[in-house]
Structure formats: structure tokens, C-alpha cells
Write a structure and sequence with these properties.
alpha+beta; about 280 residues; 8 helices; 2 domains
Amino acid sequence: MNHVHEEQLLYVYAVTRAFAAPLPDGVSGLDGEPPGLIEHRGLCAAVSRVPAEDFDAIPLRAHLEDLDWLGRTARTHQAVIAALATVTCPVPLRLATVCRDESGVRRLLDAGRARFVSAVERLDGRVEWGVKVYVQPQPPQPARELNAATGRDYLRQRLGQRQSRDETWRRAGTLSRALYAELCERAEAGRLHPPQNARLSGEPGENVLNAAYLVPHERSEEFVSAVRDFIPHIEGVRVELTGPWAPYSFAGGPDDGPGQQDRRAQGGHERDDGPGRAHLEGQ
């Protein structure tokens, strides 16, 4: 049988300083093998070989519409970066950053050199924590279960249900604004992301706050305690703390992205279910 040589590309997970420490045992990339390292002028890119039939421009566009494929790829991407974070300070790259060959990886390192060096210096010794707020109002009571003697009673009960849902949303919004502002004071930087798609996250409820915070390692315990202390008892509202992660949300620089507040610029002090996720219930 004739075998056609399959064209392969290089998938790049992250960039960091060149380092000598081995990666943890058991970490594998998208090809099922430990990620490779390409060093160039003091920088290092973590890579895996991937088939062009999946990661070239046209098939990749189709795959990015496939939530199952996207989820598997994102989990592997995250796992490799988490492994790197145990031995160095990685600057995570966007999901599905692909180069043709090793010379392409070196060009990527040269083109982004100033940004990568700056990001490593800025992120070294820091982690990212995520805080999300979800609304889970009680579903409307079925009409057959309403104890209404008259049509007026029925309408009054329906109005009461709607007002209760509206009040839950109002309280969730107030909590989200206050929580974001408070935690920005306790972090080096904060960033607001768009609300998360429930189909991607698999989380129940409607996401109303999706925020990330850059926190020094040594202040992580203090930050987590602040999140826990700030959560009030609000029926139908859930607060979720995730992390610590490599600082994905801050890899692009302090001015990259909407909704960011950088404490240093203001004179302040210096994403599947698994380890690193804690549920903080406010119900």
C-alpha cells in the first residue's frame, strides 16, 4: 500500500524565556507527544506537530465552528501552558496559532520579540484568577400549579413571578459591578470579558460577569479570601472562582482589550471542570 506523506504544521502554545528545567511527566500536546521547544535568541516556543488537513487555514475555519473539536483543542492547549507554568513564565498565544515550519516559528519570535520580552517581565511571578457571576432565577411556575381563584389572582401571581425574576437580575447586576470594582483594588490588573456562551461553558444559568484578575503568587490567598468574604446571600445568583491559571487574559499587554484596569498605571501596588475551579454559592 502506498502511503502519502502527510503535511505537518507547527502548533505554537506559548512563548517564554529559554529554560533548562524539564516539563512535568505526562504532559502531551495535540499530537499525543510531549511538546517540543524551539529556542531562538533567548526566547523559546513550545510547539507540537499537527496535520495540515486539520490546521491549515480552510479546514481550521471549519473546525472552529465545531464546539466538540474546539473544546478538545482548548483543553490540550491549556494543559500544555499549565505544565509550562510549573517551570517557567509562559506567555500564552491565541488558540490555533500555527506556523508552517521551524523558520516560521523563529520569524514569529522575531516579529513579536519586544512584546514577548515585555510580557514575560510583566507576568513573571503572577497568576490569573477568574470570577464569574451567574443568574439562575427560578423557572415560572406552571399555570396548573398556580392557586388562583380568579383571572385577576392568576395575573397577580404571574406579575409577582416576573417581578421576582427582574429583582434577581437587578441584584446580580449590582453585585457584579461592586465585585469587579472591589477586586480590581486587590489585583494588579483586571479585565472584563464578554459574557460566556452557555453552550461552550456547560454552566447552568446566564453569565452576567466574566472577569479576570492579575495577582502576584504571594497574594493569591488574600485575593481568594476577598472573593469569599464579598459574596452576599442572594437567591438565584451564583459566584464562581476559577484559577489560578497562567495569565492568558494579560498576555497581550496592559492596553490590549476592553474593560481593563491596570493598577500600576494608576499608581497602585504591584478557562472543562477540573482542578483549579471552586464553586462559591450565593444562594
